[in-house]
């Protein structure tokens, strides 16, 4: 893929803190020099190791602002070990023992499960001692925290329209037809951020770095590929920005769930992702691997005039907000109790097992259910999709209803349930507070390709899409979802009963509440 050089805004004065940050990153990279060892690849919670391999060290925690840092009343001290033989790894947001082991290319087996769990989320602020081997020696500084990649609480107070209008660039006057509706430049960014749950600040920085449309006052030379992705299937700003978001999600969730440990650059050179990175940094690295050759990606990302310099010229240091809100995922979180998205006494068809929460790149976090009405096709169903738990409607447009869940005191829990393919007619209004089983709207084929009226249901936590497997199993009215051999297949299991996902529905796919 031949791509243009990133746009450089003449005369732009970047803040000193960006140069300081870049210098620190380069120094950290230069300081990494570990010998190659072929060691027994076993990952240990450090508390379970033979005390002879480490000494007592003064109490400390990961540096403030670093993903995985967590303030505690009694911080856990990191061990002192022979660092020619072992990594000391500070547990990050969303880590599990199995996934960390995949990142480092070691066996997850540990000598004990008393101190840290072998399954489920690990507690941020604790440490693992991991043997070094020839595949896990590469280290680098954090690129971006998780909260700067996903549409996290760090984006809650950001007004895209106000920012874009204040810049006065081409984006502030731009508009585009998207699915039959004309959207402004700010609305394009908002739509992509909402749909794919990617931080809008990051999306705007990508637009500026790749095209200069945020601050520049002239139209792009190629209106079909303003961001220079040059993919024939993704044309126009909305589609290209959606492709960028898809790439970010591919890296983020591929790393989060241990499915991606290497990246292949535009020149087909592969490189292992440094195992100590966070999901946000892996997402950024993956995006740049798709856009640039292996010989230049680091310079484009962190060098003079690179992406990080552009980002920091536009927005505050994302580490500041990360220090306040991260870790986003920790061992103290539990999944909410959810009910099937239809009324008690009704029987629906389970038409799709675990599949993409939004599109490719997001985890397999969604399930589909269709009203059991013979030959209904794509007619809007007279039946109602219903609230799986109490909450308030925080999005209601383009066939999507987002229900932000609340506890018994009416406070948000951080969890969201998204319903898709909800018909516009009689859809619940934005801001409505729903009780469990209140109507959300009617299943339909609106909002994407579909063979029949149905509802697509998936979950997010603090802006992060949640898979049906791994961190938080997807359980509805006691039925637990399990994946099949590929996306859209799978089953629901409850007390020995099994319901099989079948497109179009059949007898073995019927499920009653």
Q: Main β-sheet, in a few words?
A: 9 strands, antiparallel
Low-confidence stretches: 1-41, 46-73, 110-114
Percent of residues in helices comes to 10-25%
Strand content: 15-25%
Radius of gyration from CA coordinates: 24 Å
Number of strands: 22
From the spread of the alpha carbons, the general shape counts as globular
* Alpha-beta content class: alpha+beta
Count of discrete alpha- or pi-helical segments spanning 4 or more residues: 11
Number of domains: 3
Roughly what is the average pLDDT, rounded to an integer? Answer: 86
Distance between the termini: 51 Å
Question: Can you describe this structure?
Answer:
With 513 residues, the protein is α+β, with helices and mostly antiparallel strands. It has 3 domains: 33-137, no CATH class; 144-325, no CATH class; 347-512, Glucose Permease (Domain IIA) (Distorted Sandwich). The chain contains 11 helices and 22 strands. The chain has helices at residues 16-30, 97-104, 146-149, 160-167, 185-196, 200-211, 236-256, 279-291, 297-302, 307-314, 318-325; strands at 44-45, 86-90, 127-131, 175-178, 181-184, 262-264, 270-272, 347-356, 364-371, 385-386, 391-397, 400-406, 412-420, 433-434, 439-441, 455-461, 464-465, 475-476, 479-483, 490-494, 497-500, 510-512. Strands 8, 9, 11, 12, 13, 14, 16, 17 and 22 form a 9-stranded antiparallel β-sheet that branches. Strands 18-19-20-21 form a 4-stranded antiparallel β-sheet, with no helix packed on it. Helix 5 (185-196) packs parallel to helix 7 (236-256). It is globular, with a radius of gyration of 24 Å. It starts with 15 loop residues before the first helix and ends with a strand.
């Amino acid at each position: 893929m031949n791509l243009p050089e990133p746009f450089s805004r003449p005369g732009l004065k970047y803040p000193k803190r960006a140069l300081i940050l870049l210098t620190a990153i380069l120094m950290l990279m230069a300081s990494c020099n570990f010998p190659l060892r072929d060691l027994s690849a076993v990952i240990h919670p450090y508390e379970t190791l033979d005390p002879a391999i480490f000494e007592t060290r003064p109490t400390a925690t990961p540096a403030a602002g670093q993903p995985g840092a967590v303030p505690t009343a009694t911080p856990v001290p990191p061990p002192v070990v022979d660092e020619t033989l072992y990594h000391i790894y500070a547990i990050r947001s969303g880590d599990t023992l199995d996934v960390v082991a995949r990142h480092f290319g070691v066996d997850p087996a540990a000598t004990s499960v008393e101190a840290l769990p072998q399954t489920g989320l690990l507690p941020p602020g604790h440490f693992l001692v991991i043997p070094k081997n020839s595949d896990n020696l590469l280290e680098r500084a954090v690129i971006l925290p998780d909260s700067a990649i996903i549409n996290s609480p760090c984006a809650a107070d950001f007004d895209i329209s106000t920012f874009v209008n204040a810049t006065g660039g081409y984006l502030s006057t731009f508009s585009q037809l998207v699915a039959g509706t004309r959207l402004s430049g700010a609305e394009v960014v908002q739509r992509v951020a909402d749909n794919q749950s990617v931080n809008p600040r990051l999306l705007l920085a990508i637009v500026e770095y790749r095209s200069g449309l945020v601050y520049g006052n002239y139209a792009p030379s190629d209106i079909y590929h303003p961001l220079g992705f040059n993919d024939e299937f993704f044309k126009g700003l909305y589609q290209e920005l959606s492709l960028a978001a898809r790439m970010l999600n591919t890296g983020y969730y591929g790393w989060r769930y241990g499915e991606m440990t290497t990246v292949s650059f535009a020149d087909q050179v592969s490189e292992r992702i440094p195992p100590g990175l966070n999901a946000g940094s892996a997402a950024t690295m993956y995006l740049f691997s798709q856009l640039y050759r292996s010989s230049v990606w680091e310079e484009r990302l962190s060098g003079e005039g690179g992406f990080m310099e552009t980002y920091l010229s536009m927005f505050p240091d994302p580490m500041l907000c990360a220090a306040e809100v991260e870790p986003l995922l920790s061992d103290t979180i539990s999944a909410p109790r959810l009910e099937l998205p239809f009324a008690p006494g009704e029987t629906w068809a389970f038409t799709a097992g675990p599949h993409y929460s939004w599109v490719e790149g997001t985890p397999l976090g969604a399930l589909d259910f269709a009203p059991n009405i013979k030959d209904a096709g794509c007619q809007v169903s007279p039946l109602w999709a219903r609230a799986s738990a109490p909450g308030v409607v925080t999005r209601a447009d383009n066939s999507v209803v987002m229900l932000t869940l609340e506890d018994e005191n009416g406070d948000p829990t951080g969890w969201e349930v998204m319903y898709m393919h909800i018909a516009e007619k009689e859809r619940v209004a934005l801001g409505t507070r729903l009780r469990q089983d209140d109507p959300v709207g009617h299943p339909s084929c609106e909002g994407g390709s579909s063979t029949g009226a149905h509802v697509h249901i998936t979950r997010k936590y603090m802006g992060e899409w949640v898979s049906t497997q791994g961190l938080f199993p997807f359980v509805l009215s006691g039925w637990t979802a399990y994946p099949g051999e590929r996306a859209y297949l799978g089953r629901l299991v409850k007390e020995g009963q099994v319901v099989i996902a079948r497109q179009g529905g059949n007898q073995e796919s019927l499920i009653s509440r």
